[in-house]
Write a structure and sequence with these properties.
mainly alpha; 19 helices; 84% helix
Length: 428
Amino acid sequence: MKTDDLQARIEEAESRVIGGVLRKAGVRRLVFSVGQNLVDGWVQDKPFRKRIAGPVRWLLEKAKGRRVGTEASGMAYDLGTLVTLWAQKVNADHKDDAGLHARSRSEAFKGFIETTDFGEIAEMLENSGERMVKSVEAINEHLWKYPAKIASVLAALLASLNTSIRASREAMRPIEKNVAPDLLADMMLSLMKGVRGRDAGDLVNASCEMLRRLHTGSLLLGRGGKPLFQIHLSELLKECIPAINPEILGKARIALAEDREAATHALADALIGNPGHVISYVSSLGSVKNPSIRAASRRMRIIGDIDQEDLSKAAAKAAGDIDTYEIAGLVNDFLNLLNRLHESNPDLFTSTASSIADSIDGQEVRKAADWIIPGVIEAFGPVLSEIMPSLMKGVREMIDPQGRFGSYGHEEASMQLKAVPGSTGSEL
């Protein structure tokens, strides 16, 4: 079909759709009501205009009250036809000249860019901040005088949410009843199959390159050994954090923690009367964890299949990149913190641990230990027997007062160990 014929059919379908919209009773009343308001504003108490306006108002009133039949099905038919013709027109244009629409849009966008002063727009937005805040303050001043209206708005939102939930459920019901699992999987997974992997890879490359450039630029623009990102973020946080009330922040954190507790209790309350859900959760734990275990095993096999020399180089590079000095510093800082806390409050750890220990049922612990420890030893006995010689050798070397790990109090501890009934240093 020629493009000119398609264009003519499109215009014909457009006219039918617009005509159908205008023939609807509500739209007609709106249009003629606007016309009456325009006439009233045009009169302005002028005698000549009043004489003209009278017949015009009468005609508008008659036209507004006139019933013109229109069927929704007919409009839907015309709208479907219009969309189809548009698609045919676009396909025909692309077939003749693939770059036709691109060139027209390019010219239109060029004109828009050339005639738009984005600096003026930016200045307008910057200067509008205070006016927007004042407008919001004015709205709040009057809006919150009527709490019942606010409640009505919230009730309307709730009703909309419930309706959306019900509608979503009804939308899924035909799939549940009429679509077989293989057909559903074929329809849904065909979407994934249709994704162009090379284009997705190019997108990932572009995103990674943008992040790399951003990071590199931050380093190049940095000052005092700090990247620019850190500098700007520090300035932002230094301005933001003093404005935050620490007491309110602490209370908010406590409130969130207690709300999480309340949600857990609410779920527990609901499950008390439905033990089947709990049984289903427990019985499915193994099957739920198996995919993660298999995935981890597969990753380890992939690493193990790499050429040994290449793997060794990669591991050496990873180990060399680890900042061991910072790790040691972290351990030192942590121990220093613990020691300072102990010096200021020697009973802090002991009292906390004692409080926990006093609440533990010793009989239950002993009962559990009576079967757990023998079971672990029996299960891991072959493994333990292989590592025990090396373990005992290492322990012997560490407790030897003359060994290379000797330190302050080492000899005294060794003598105390030998003094334990049934043990001798030689046995170790």
